[in-house]
């Protein structure tokens, strides 16, 4: 699969929440970059993985998260 940029909406209140998202996604070698925005409550991920796999990883943070679409 080719590299794509995915956008997720995630309940984040602080940098700790953002770091949790970066940590779980960082464990996946196919993830090229992770960009978080606490104010907008978004996580932008560049990866070759399908959105479902990324969503499952983000759910491990315990935060409410949903797939928005391709960015």
UniProtKB/TrEMBL annotation:
Metal-binding is among the record's keywords: yes
A GO CC annotation given for this chain: cytosol
Domain HMA: 3-66
Ligase keyword on record: no
CDD domains: HMA
Taxonomic superkingdom: Eukaryota
SUPFAM superfamilies, sorted: HMA, heavy metal-associated domain
Gene Ontology BP terms: copper ion transport
Family annotation (InterPro entries): Copper_transport_ATOX1-like, HMA_dom, HMA_dom_sf
PROSITE patterns on file: HMA_2
Assigned keywords, A-Z: Chaperone, Copper, Copper transport, Ion transport, Metal-binding, Transport
GO molecular function, a single term: metal ion binding
Quaternary structure, from the entry: Homodimer. Interacts with ATP7B. Interacts with ATP7A. Interacts (via dimer form) with SLC31A1 (via C-terminal domain); this interaction improves ATOX1 stability and controls intracellular Cu(I) levels.
Family stated for the protein in its record: Belongs to the ATX1 family.
Biological role stated in the UniProt entry: Binds and deliver cytosolic copper to the copper ATPase proteins. May be important in cellular antioxidant defense.
The protein's name in its UniProt record: Copper transport protein ATOX1
Organism from which the protein derives: Biomphalaria glabrata
Gene name, Swiss-Prot/TrEMBL: 106063240
